[in-house]
Amino acid sequence: MTKTPLLIYLHGLNSSSRSTKAQQTIHYVHKNKLDIDLWVPDLPCHPEQARRLMSDRIRREYGMRPVYIIGSSLGGYYGTWLMQRLIYLHPDIVTRLVLINPAVRPYELFRQYLGKQTNFHTGEEWELTTEHVATLESLETFWLDNARDILLMVQEGDETLDYRKAQEKYARSHIITQKGGSHAFEHYDDMLPTIFDFLSEKPVL
């Protein structure tokens, strides 16, 4: 049994573990010699396969150590579902979540993008179908049991998602809103000390 926290980084749609924010997170942990186990999976395109991958991983934890989650864009949607799943399975362990320009109700947005998709990093081509959309909708989290254990970070210049939808959904959480920026969340690396202070339950606001 270990008390070393598990940190899960979940990337967005058509991204991968090679994304800039994922790599900056990995570098920060290693550079600062943080006592954290990292898991940065390459999420499958199909939401059901992504759900199984996350479920299989947390099932191995058996509620024995804190779990931290950082979710970017679609990864934020998955991260919200995963946090609620962890709270249900292991209500006694510490679970904390950081959201970076997260997708809110992505199944509504994705109906506009059905068809051929290409992963930015791997070049993999795949088809976004109505089945994907329906599975995403089934992962919707309507209630946040531990909203104060969530840190929401959004930039008003997000050209892909409406940051106000995230502010509304996570209104009971800690929120950092920055002027300008983009969907990629510019200068994410500057926010990593704040992120890890929050994950370790230090005041950040």
TrEMBL record:
InterPro entries: AB_hydrolase_fold, UPF0227/Esterase_YqiA. PANTHER family: ESTERASE YQIA, ESTERASE YQIA-RELATED. This is Esterase. It comes from Endozoicomonas montiporae.
